[in-house]
Amino acid sequence: MCLTTKVFADNLFTSLPLVQKLRERGMYYPGTVRMNRLKGYSLSSEAELKQQERGSSDYKVEVNSGIVAVRWYDNRAVDLLSSQDWFPIKSKRWYMCIFFYTTNMMVVNAWLRHRTHAQVLKRKTLRLAELQSRLATQLVLPKAPVGRPRLIASSPRLSLVHHRTAAPREVCLDGQDHLPEWGKSRERCKAEGCPSLSYVK
Questions:
Q1: Which of 77, 71, 65 lies closest to 29 in space, CA to CA?
Q2: I want to staple 5 with a disulfide (CB 3.0 to 4.6 A). Which of 12, 27, 74, 120 is the partner?
Q3: Residue 5: which domain range?
Q4: Per the database record, which ranges form the PiggyBac transposable element-derived protein domain (predicted)?
Q5: Residues 14, 17, 22, CA angle at the centre, nearest 5°?
Q6: What is the rounded distance in angstroms from the CA atom of residue 88 to the CA atom of residue 58?
């Protein structure tokens, strides 16, 4: 089921049965919740979190439904209940948890929009893991410097054999002119399944 609708509410309305029922109907529900409504979720007490540094948190995930209960301590403990996609991460720096969770949520939302557009345009839909891999590759690869490239005095002559590039299509077409780097010795070609040797790194 494609969950695209999101309902946000405070602790006056939030309860575990409500979150479960909305998820069954295809709706996400993140919201604050009162402590006495978290039956079945064994979280660290407010006193235990208070002994740790500010920003400490604890969470539990219900495996079957994927519903997450989070207790976060700032000036006091705040409980949240969510059926939004969640991935586990623990860090002493509480703001990093928020950053990674927000980033992951943006990627999931982008994938949902991609899937909707792909269905309308009758194109192949990428899997979420494949989209995450492409995004990571585009962000990690270094950008080529803008401007006219320097001429290399003596470049080794290579046979004109075309191989499939290992870089994502988005990287090839980003307009950054990814120029090859020449090595002093030949190395195995980076293209998958290619047995040839190349001076290009």
A1: 65
A2: 27
A3: 1-86
A4: 6-83
A5: 80
A6: 11
